[in-house]
Amino acid sequence: MPHLILENALAKNSRQLVEKECAKRGRPKQEWLLCFTYVFALLLVSGCTTATPAAPVVFPQASWAVAPDPQPGSACRRELDATRSYLRTLDTTALMAVQDGRVLFSEGPVQSVSIVFSVRKSVLSMMYGKYVADGTIDLDRTLADLGIDDVGGLLPIERQARLRDLLAARSGVYHAAANGGDDAAAAPPRGSHVPGSYFLYNNWDFNAAGTAFERLTGRSIYQAFSDDLATPLQLEDFDLASHARSGDTRRSEHLAYPFYLSTRDMARLGYLMLLRGNWKGQQLVPADWVERMTRQTTPAAEMHPPHTARRGFGYGYLWWLLDEPRDSPLSGAYMAWGVHGQYILVVPKRQMVIAHKRQVPIADNWNVSWVSPVAFLRAARMLAAAPCRVGAK
After folding, report:
1. Residue 247: phi, psi to the nearest 5?
2. Which of 65, 57, 62, 61 is closest to 96 using CA atoms?
3. What is the rounded distance in angstroms from the CA atom of residue 385 to the CA atom of residue 33?
4. Which residue has the higher pLDDT, 308 or 367?
5. What is the DSSP code (8-state) at residue 333?
6. Helix axes of 2-9 and 32-46: crossing angle, nearest 10 degrees
């Protein structure tokens, strides 16, 4: 009788695990009841018994599924309404918040396509993962190994920068970039820092990382993005033909690689990151690469110049890492960030992705208002704290 009670208490997988453990311990079958009791107690203490299966992951198909509309007067509805009111005080073009795979909140023309500025860098980092995993890209190869030089020549010490240094914005290369929008004006003298030792948000690093990607894979960034990410993710608004590298070749031969995305497609990229690179059973980005991209390489205090350090964000491999208290709804979050207010924020603690865009005209993009990280993250905290998930109070 005790044997039957114990055996029925064990789920099938746990029972098999216990039997293996008893056999491994060399106990004869007639003593397995005692061993069952001992090992099963260990399993209970360690939490290794069969857990309740997790709810199936919801994926968007041709379009996103929408979460049920919250009841009027509910706490969820009040918080979402307050967020919408706040957003309308900003120069937000569009915002989409996805929670548990469904659209929780949407504001503005989320289908509208425009340049997303430095979000491009985080996208490139995602693309690196597949080729790092299969050995096509070795992050310890140096610029010298790859034959990467530039207008007027790189210094010998600069050519010792590794690919991983480019992804971490720690190359020590302070050659002019083909485009602006970085902290190059605060760069120290060339050759003054050993590669890997000093953080500077420098477009030269990011553009050269694009050149290295194309040389090592033999594919253009945009074709690789289309094949490796846009097609399997079923991006709704991506147009390969509208993409081309750009910049001033008189300054640098390593051109920028602007991306043009809609807010709802930005959310799909963020959702892929939230799911650790797995999309409908296909590992588009290796899970360990997602972890590596979002692991801190540079804490905020080690950033240069001082105004960059004061933002309070850490940096991984081309992704910004939030430094939030543990009780914050955004604790553990990370983001892609483009100038003016382009954001893809991933919030694992809430199983949430928030994509935000401030759409600006290309011809005059420096003379328009911005949605600062402070303003955006205020809206993000409101959304992440809203009690809208099943079981929330």
Report:
1. 145, 180
2. 65
3. 49
4. 308
5. -
6. 30
Do the beta carbons of residue 73 and residue 46 sit within 8 Å?
A: no
The stretch 136-155 carries a mean pLDDT of 98
Instruction: Give the chain's length.
Output: 393
Query: CA Rg, the chain, in Å?
Result: 25
Cα(50)–Cα(32) distance, integer angstroms? 20
Q: Which residue has the tokens 């207010």?
A: 341
In whole angstroms, give the CA distance from residue 48 to residue 54.
15
- Cis peptide upstream of residue 361 (ω within 30 degrees of 0): no
Is residue 310 packed enough to be buried (19+ CB in 10 Å), middle (13-18) or exposed (0-12)? exposed
Q: Using one digit for the tens of pLDDT, what is the confidence trace for 249-293?
A: 999 999 999 999 999 999 999 999 999 999 999 999 999 999 999
Contact 358, 341 (CB under 8 A): yes
3-class DSSP state of 228: helix
389: three-class secondary structure by DSSP? coil
Three-state SS at 162: strand
Residue type, 17: L
Higher pLDDT, 365 or 79: 79
All structural domains of the chain, each given as residue ranges with its CATH number in brackets, are 2-46 (no CATH), 107-385 (3.40.710.10)
Entry pTM: 0.86
Q: Are 379 and 87 in contact (CB under 8 A)?
A: yes
Q: What is the pLDDT of residue 53?
A: 52
Distance CA 101, CA 364 (A): 36
The rounded distance, in Å, linking the Cα atoms of 255 and 177 is 8
